[in-house]
């Protein structure tokens, strides 16, 4: 079966329906310092987050799997998607809905060889050429564009600015894509939307908020 053939009722079709409707994507660490991971995840999903990705380089593999099992169960309870970053073996072991890679990670063909056809594949892009390559890749289901602004979560990565969002919006319209990097409710989200992006990935805007659920609702309302 070709990679993008969808049969109504299949897991892949269900995941793609959720991806198509998604506009708010959260990346979070394991909340080890706060000790409130399940509560935080419930609040974020309840507030309107559509996809949550665990991104915590401090975790060893077994600890990452344990945290992802919590994320997987909370996501299922809310009927939302959860994402694994970089590690295809861990994505396979945890039954990930989404697997996300950077430019130097596994190719899409390699990821498919490990994970099969039902997992959603995403890729980070930092230029128009990379975005167009992701758009043209039959195995990639969505891509992210950024960082729009410099962010401490990606030290050393230069900001691409909102002009790239405008260029991508004018050139790549067949797949969902998300702006990422320094995005927050208010003026910055307004700039992102004015540039042509209708979906956003956030980190600190929710993860550092005193009330994550309220922060998610505010972002969701602005995106809507």
UniProtKB/TrEMBL annotation:
Residues that, per the record, bind 2-[(2R,5Z)-2-carboxy-4-methylthiazol-5(2H)-ylidene]ethyl phosphate: 151-153, 182
Enzyme Commission designation: 2.5.1.3
Residue stretches making up the Thiamine phosphate synthase/TenI domain: 24-206
The keyword Cell membrane appears for this protein: no
Residues holding 4-amino-2-methyl-5-(diphosphooxymethyl)pyrimidine: 53-57, 85, 124, 154
Cofactor(s) needed: Mg(2+)
Catalysed reactions, semicolon-separated: 2-(2-carboxy-4-methylthiazol-5-yl)ethyl phosphate + 4-amino-2-methyl-5-(diphosphooxymethyl)pyrimidine + 2 H(+) = thiamine phosphate + CO2 + diphosphate; 2-[(2R,5Z)-2-carboxy-4-methylthiazol-5(2H)-ylidene]ethyl phosphate + 4-amino-2-methyl-5-(diphosphooxymethyl)pyrimidine + 2 H(+) = thiamine phosphate + CO2 + diphosphate; 4-methyl-5-(2-phosphooxyethyl)-thiazole + 4-amino-2-methyl-5-(diphosphooxymethyl)pyrimidine + H(+) = thiamine phosphate + diphosphate
Pathway noted in the entry: Cofactor biosynthesis; thiamine diphosphate biosynthesis; thiamine phosphate from 4-amino-2-methyl-5-diphosphomethylpyrimidine and 4-methyl-5-(2-phosphoethyl)-thiazole: step 1/1
GO molecular function list: thiamine-phosphate diphosphorylase activity
Cofactor comment text: Binds 1 Mg(2+) ion per subunit.
Binding site for Mg(2+): 86, 105
Alphabetized UniProt keyword annotations: Magnesium, Metal-binding, Thiamine biosynthesis, Transferase
Family: Belongs to the thiamine-phosphate synthase family.
Job description of the protein: Condenses 4-methyl-5-(beta-hydroxyethyl)thiazole monophosphate (THZ-P) and 2-methyl-4-amino-5-hydroxymethyl pyrimidine pyrophosphate (HMP-PP) to form thiamine monophosphate (TMP).
Name of the protein in its database record: Thiamine-phosphate synthase
Taxonomic source organism: Brevibacterium spongiae
């Amino acid at each position: 079966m070709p990679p993008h053939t969808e049969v109504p009722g299949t897991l892949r079709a269900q995941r793609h329906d959720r991806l198509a409707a998604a506009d708010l994507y959260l990346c979070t660490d394991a909340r080890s310092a706060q000790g409130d991971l399940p509560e935080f995840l419930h609040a974020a999903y309840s507030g309107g987050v559509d996809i949550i990705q665990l991104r915590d380089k401090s975790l060893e593999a077994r600890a990452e799997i344990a945290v992802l099992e919590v994320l997987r169960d909370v996501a299922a309870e809310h009927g939302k998607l959860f994402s694994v970053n970089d590690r295809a073996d861990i994505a396979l072991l945890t039954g990930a809905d989404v697997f996300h890679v950077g430019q130097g990670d596994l190719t899409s063909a390699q990821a498919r060889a490990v994970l099969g056809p039902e997992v959603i594949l995403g890729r980070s892009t930092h230029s128009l050429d990379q975005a167009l390559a992701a758009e043209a890749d039959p195995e990639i289901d969505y891509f992210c564009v950024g960082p729009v602004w410099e962010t401490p979560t990606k030290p050393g990565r230069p900001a691409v600015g909102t002009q790239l969002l405008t260029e991508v919006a004018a050139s790549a319209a067949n797949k969902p894509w998300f702006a990422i990097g320094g995005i927050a409710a208010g003026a910055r989200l307004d700039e992102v939307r004015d540039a042509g992006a209708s979906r956003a990935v956030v980190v600190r805007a929710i993860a550092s908020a005193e009330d994550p659920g309220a922060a998610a609702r505010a972002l969701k309302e602005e995106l809507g």
